Amino acid sequence: MDNDIERILYSRDDIAKAAKRLGKQLTNDFQDKRPIIISVLKGAILFTVDVIKEMDVYAEIDFIDVASYHGGTQSSGEIDLVRDIGSDIAGRNILIIEDIIDTGRTLKYLIDLLKSRNAAEIKVCTLLDKEEGRLIDVKADYVGFSVPNEFVVGYGLDYQELYRNLPYVGVLKPSVYTN
């Protein structure tokens, strides 16, 4: 798999430091709020685990799975709800943990969905923020790294369900997905 990577953007150590930094911020901001942390599957699971291990707050965790890439390298623009949360979020403080915010469509979909269920407050934490790719005006409250407008994989992010298990985030060689 390493041979398919053009260059590493964020090492295992870089990611661990970001998770620790964000965990401290989230601990301060969510103290006494008892949030429901919603991890966006599949990509955010590794980041979610590392961040919540650094948080010292009472919190519940739930999972939601949405799809927009459908195996390609760009968002299709259509969001499919694959797996819904099981929690009643009415009146609750919500922390969405994402792997990457690119076009903003998925995040807007998630925020609108949770607002329609009467969440009290919705905050967003993302490992990667690709602002150059943004088509919808949404912002994360907590960001691990800003990432260039390239196709990245690793540490939960995939191409055709592969590369999620790389311990770093890297740029996938175009030759891998243009053949």
UniProtKB/TrEMBL annotation:
Listed pathway(s): Purine metabolism; IMP biosynthesis via salvage pathway; IMP from hypoxanthine: step 1/1; Purine metabolism; GMP biosynthesis via salvage pathway; GMP from guanine: step 1/1
GO biological process, one term: purine ribonucleoside salvage
EC numbers: 2.4.2.8
Catalytic activities: GMP + diphosphate = guanine + 5-phospho-alpha-D-ribose 1-diphosphate; IMP + diphosphate = hypoxanthine + 5-phospho-alpha-D-ribose 1-diphosphate
Source superkingdom: Bacteria
Name this polypeptide is given: Hypoxanthine phosphoribosyltransferase
Chief subcellular location: cytoplasm
Cofactor(s) of this protein: Mg(2+)
Family matches, as SUPFAM superfamilies: PRTase-like
The keyword Transmembrane helix belongs to this UniProt entry's keyword annotation: no
